[in-house]
Amino acid sequence: MKLIKSILYTSAVALLGLTACDKELDIDSLDFDVSTAKTTYKLGDTVVFKFKGNPDNITLFTGEEGHKYEYRERLRAEGKPELSFTSFRQYGTQTLPLELLVSTTFNGKVDKDVANGGWKNITDKATFSTTADNTPSGKIDLSEYVGDKPLYIAFHYKGEAGSTQRKWTIKNFEVSNKLTSGVTLTIADLSNAGFSEYSYSNPNVLWKIEASQISIQGGPATNEANDDWVVTQALYLDKVMPDSGMGLKNITTKMTEYPYVFTKPGTYKVTFIASNATADKSESVVKELEITIEP
């Protein structure tokens, strides 16, 4: 077994409320190591990590996407941000388009001033439904809007009085970031894009915001004109969630080994963090192993 790296570090933690005369609690000496029977396995094999010592806590980073130790504190990552969605246009013959707009200067308040949010019309970047349901928009490149300011995305609907107004439905809304590593991360979808609506006219017709879609139905020819907006919350196009580890044990349990099955071929840098801690001190050791999974 090739041990790539072993890092030991100790940190003293001040306990709030203790006076100088209080005696610090002793910490148990940390003794931990990890090994496997071999370094190369076939896809579907169970890799058994055997532990030496009994630290209070063990956390595992498998080295798979989303679980890499080196990215545990990463909050931003370069990539190619893209917007995609599907649309469905129904009813009527009005030719007013559903507009797709973006802004990096909008103040985030979806109110009577929403139309003055410095919007850029990018409707021509997307494909919209003419009659078919779930018409794909295509991938809309948002790279030019990456920066310190967040991006807001809006759909703007208008319907004229005197004829049947269109109904529009938007599904599968997603803003993603394709990293240079080839991994694609979701920045926002319908569940967390935080859409809010505002109507400039005819309060009886509003954007309907649901978990699986957003939609608006203008109504019959007898309805008055409509002018309605629906806008996302602030979106940070290069924002990523830090990679996470898996807690294997705490002070109440004892563990001598841990079995794991990798689901894809590749070479993985597997990292274990073992620690002992009291209210006064903590001591940790990081063990890294390289495991290769063959097809």
TrEMBL record:
InterPro entries, sorted: DUF5017
Domain DUF5017 per the UniProt entry, residue ranges: 20-195
Pfam families membership: DUF5017 (PF16409)
UniProt-recorded name of the protein: DUF5017 domain-containing protein
Organism: Pelobium manganitolerans
